[in-house]
């Protein structure tokens, strides 16, 4: 058991580096439920947003990834863009460990709300964020962020905002 993260099987959490870009892109693609952004976008996240991104590594393999940033117009909020967990790690609490590792970072000091968007069919992700709110004994409000018609081709679900907070103590 990793004492820092409470994770089994020697999964280590750390800030991403640009060398992780291909592994992150492959992980997101292999989840089959997330929007696969360009490989360039993951290199950019690793280079310019590493303070608010987390990778989970096991025996040299990227098995988890979280990307986030603090919106310039609302520095009290942390917007979580993607949470990706490898099939092999499902049900081990890795998603929540990624979120809690990020929230504990200095880069997230004074964060009062965490927001993320989740599609209606992604029940695992919905449970993750509702569970995080429960763990912090705070609220989780759900509202529509991006209706389906804003996406081209009629194949993308709507995206619902899960807004967690206020965090009642220094996160
Ligand atoms: C929290 C999370 O992973 N949201 C996914 C948003 C969107 N569908 C994407 O995959 O980037």
TrEMBL record:
What top-level class of enzyme does the UniProt entry assign? transferase
Keywords for this protein: Acyltransferase, Transferase
Determine the domain of life of the protein's source.
Bacteria
Q: Name its pathway.
A: Amine and polyamine biosynthesis; ectoine biosynthesis; L-ectoine from L-aspartate 4-semialdehyde: step 2/3
One Pfam family, short name please?
Acetyltransf_1
One term of GO molecular function: diaminobutyrate acetyltransferase activity
Is Ribosomal protein there in the keyword field? no
**What Gene3D superfamilies does the annotation carry?**
3.40.630.30
Transferase among the record's keywords? yes
**Start and end residues of each N-acetyltransferase domain:** 11-152
Enzyme Commission no: 2.3.1.178
Alphabetical list of NCBIfam families matching this protein: ectoine_EctA
Q: Which family does it belong to?
A: Belongs to the acetyltransferase family. EctA subfamily.
Q: Which protein are we looking at?
A: L-2,4-diaminobutyric acid acetyltransferase
Q: Which organism is it from?
A: Polycladomyces zharkentensis
This protein's encoding gene: ectA
């Amino acid at each position: 058991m990793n004492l820092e993260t409470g994770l089994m099987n020697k999964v280590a959490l750390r800030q991403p580096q640009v060398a992780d870009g291909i592994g992150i892109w492959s992980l997101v693609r292999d989840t089959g439920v997330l929007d696969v952004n360009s490989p360039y976008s993951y290199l950019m996240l690793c280079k310019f947003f590493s303070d608010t991104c987390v990778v989970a590594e096991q025996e040299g393999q990227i098995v988890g990834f979280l990307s986030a940033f603090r919106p310039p117009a609302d520095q009290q909020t942390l917007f979580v863009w993607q949470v990706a967990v490898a099939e092999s790690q499902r049900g081990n609490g890795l998603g929540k460990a990624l979120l809690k590792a990020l929230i504990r970072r200095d880069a997230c000091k004074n964060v009062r709300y965490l927001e993320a968007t989740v599609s209606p069919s992604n029940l695992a992700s919905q449970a993750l964020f509702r569970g995080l709110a429960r763990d912090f004994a705070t609220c989780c409000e759900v509202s529509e962020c991006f209706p389906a018609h804003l996406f081209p081709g009629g194949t993308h679900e709507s995206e619902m905002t899960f807004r967690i907070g206020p965090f009642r103590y220094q996160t």
